[in-house]
Design a protein that fits this description.
The complex is a heterodimer of chains A (361) and B (226). With 361 residues, chain A is an alpha+beta fold. Chain A contains nine helices and 14 strands. Chain A folds into two domains: 158 residues, no CATH class; 152 residues, no CATH class. Classes of the chains: A alpha+beta (361), B alpha+beta (226).
Chain lengths: 361, 226
């Protein structure tokens, strides 16, 4: 081997080894940076999962605690109990609230709450309460043969995989109009994909008006009306959109972005867009949500905002936010102008649904 | 729960029935189109609302035994496909059904069942340049609601440049740009690099032989000749 060849090989080896060490070093630094907050959150979830499982007998535990794999994690839906889900399964994962004792239900909901923010948990339970309205209304007139069921008793809690501070596992909480999917992996909590929806969109409790998805609606209308006429022209699609494009059952797909790019937004408009995105990302516990929001903000110039329907709040309108690491859709069901009482939404991360980015490493 | 029950009374009469939890008289037809150099794939999901579901089931369940057989499902899928058209650069493209999934008759009647049809259109490998794909859905236009979208191509050499739809999304035109295939580009680069490197390598080899062959160039030539 000549000196020249030896020198060239040595340089290449140094570069490769140096690069690896640099990558490892920055990875370790990143982990060290993340560790304190996320370890606490994951530890909280592990303790809550063990506490919930401890309340169950063997038969119930077998339902509540199942394997985590590529198939089980996709079993969730917007549909009520008794209907085959988009992925073909006829029953959700886990144990439903209606089959739990009060002690078990308390522990189950504590588990769900352990990974969510206070606002996120409130939102989830408001969706559950809205569905109880449907059940109360439907029960007296329901045909004896129909298997479709609504209401609080039909919301399921499942633990997929072994609760661990290190290895990936998952918590699912879902029923009609709700599918919270939290994957805890390598000290990160990932909310995507998650579905929220509601019918009715407004109800009252003790004289207080509850709108489970009202804030999302209001912030979106505020944003579209904060855009200039020229910006609205780019944001508003020239056609109706009357449902989610990538709703439940559409994992792993990415549609072509449309609408206006946030690169041209003013500072105030960007802040409004970020605030709107937080309505979904912020369902997750504060620490994990903050990390995700930082990532979305970094990608904001490549994020699109699309709108279909009226720009007058109170009427129905579809909107979509799509960036490199986020997809959010909000779709009133039925004729958009007439129906604002039945909403479906979806939150996805095209690069990291079910924490795939982390678990692949 | 009690407080919620108390608060809900005023609302109950205004609420829809459970069957109304989803679409009533609409036929939702969602299409996603996937573009590749040598094929176009279609995913068509159709969901009949509860008020039209019995009509759809009567078309599906041809022998009226309340069970939808694979043959009946296939026949319905083909019916839907016969009602859609796909044109690439102004030429009709033939679609072939690759799969159909049908829920139970009961689920469809409840307005909660989705029929999933998958189809593919093989095309001769596209040369680089601008392309225009037009998809039109003529299936049950009365009372139907449509969604039509292009998926982001998995081939980085295909760029969707525009999507244009009619107000109901019955028709979508997808304009896209096909770049030279990355494999072909790589082959060109390698060939060019090879062509440039060959004289240098030969020269370097000749230089080494001069330096290290104790027998010199002549003796080496002889060795090759034997």
């Amino acid at each position: 081997m000549s000196y020249r060849t030896f020198y060239a090989v040595a340089v290449i080896v140094c570069l490769v080894v140096g690069g690896l060490l640099l990558g490892l070093g920055s990875g370790m630094a990143l982990q060290a940076q993340r560790a304190p907050a996320t370890v606490v959150a994951t530890g909280r979830a592990v303790a809550a999962a063990e506490a919930f499982l401890a309340t169950l007998d063997q038969a119930k535990r077998a339902k509540a605690h199942i394997d985590l794999n590529a198939k089980t994690r996709t079993v969730w839906s917007n549909l009520p109990t008794g209907v085959a889900m988009q992925v073909g399964a006829t029953e959700r994962n886990g144990l439903k609230l209606g089959d739990m004792t009060p002690v078990q239900e308390k522990a189950a909901l504590a588990l769900v709450a352990s990974t969510l923010s206070a606002d996120g948990f409130r939102k989830a339970m408001a969706i559950v309460d809205a569905d109880q309205f449907l059940e109360t209304r439907s029960a007296p007139t329901r045909s004896a043969t129909t298997r479709t069921r609504f209401g609080r008793a039909e919301y399921y809690v499942a633990i997929l995989g072994k609760p661990s501070a290190v290895d990936p596992w998952m918590i699912q909480f879902g029923g009609h109009h709700l599918a919270i999917n939290v994957t805890l992996a390598a000290r990160q909590n990932v909310l995507a994909p998650t579905h929220t929806g509601t019918q009715p969109a407004t109800y009252t409790v003790d004289g207080k008006t509850i709108r489970p998805l009202g804030t999302e609606n209001d912030k979106a209308f505020a944003l579209i009306n904060a855009l200039s006429a020229e910006q609205q022209k780019q944001a508003i699609l020239g056609f109706e959109v009357r449902n989610l494009v990538l709703g439940p059952g559409n994992d792993g797909k990415t549609i072509q972005p449309e609408g206006i790019r946030a690169a041209g937004f003013t500072t105030a408009q960007r802040a409004m867009l970020v605030d709107l995105v937080r309505e979904w990302v912020g369902i997750l516990g504060d620490e994990a949500a903050a990390a995700k929001m930082n990532e979305i903000q970094a990608n904001l110039p490549d994020t699109y905002f699309a709108w279909a329907g009226s720009t007058t709040n109170g009427k129905g309108a579809y909107f979509r936010i799509q960036g490199p690491t986020v997809l959010i859709e909000y779709a009133p069901q039925g004729a958009a102008d007439a129906n604002t009482d039945h909403i479906h939404t979806i939150y996805r991360d095209p690069t990291n649904d079910y924490a795939d980015k982390v678990t692949r490493q | 729960m009690k407080t919620i029950a108390a608060g809900m009374l005023g609302l109950l009469l205004a609420l829809p029935t459970p069957g109304m939890a989803h679409r009533l008289d609409e036929y939702l037809q969602t299409t996603r189109l996937s573009l590749a150099r040598d094929r176009i794939d279609l995913e068509i999901d159709v969901t009949p609302g509860v008020m039209i579901a019995r009509d759809i089931v009567s078309h599906l369940d041809m022998d009226a035994d309340r069970r939808i057989s694979p043959r009946e499902a296939e026949a319905y899928g083909k019916t839907v496909l016969q009602d859609v058209t796909l044109d690439l650069d102004g030429h009709a493209v033939l679609l072939t059904m690759t799969r159909v999934e049908v829920p139970t008759a009961e689920e469809i009647i409840d307005g909660l069942g989705t029929i999933r049809i998958r189809a593919a259109a093989p095309i001769s490998s596209l040369a680089p340049g601008r392309r225009a794909l037009v998809f039109r859905n003529n299936h049950r236009p009365d009372g139907s609601v449509y969604l039509a979208n292009a998926l982001v191509p998995t081939d980085p050499g295909i760029d969707v440049t525009a999507q244009t739809r009619d107000p109901r999304q019955r028709e979508i035109r997808i304009d896209y740009q096909v770049q030279p295939a990355s494999g072909a580009a790589l082959a060109w680069i390698l060939a060019l690099a090879g062509a440039l490197a060959t004289p240098i390598l030969l020269r370097s080899r000749g230089h080494r032989l001069k330096q290290h062959d104790p027998r010199g160039p002549r003796s080496r030539t002889r060795a090759h000749q034997t």
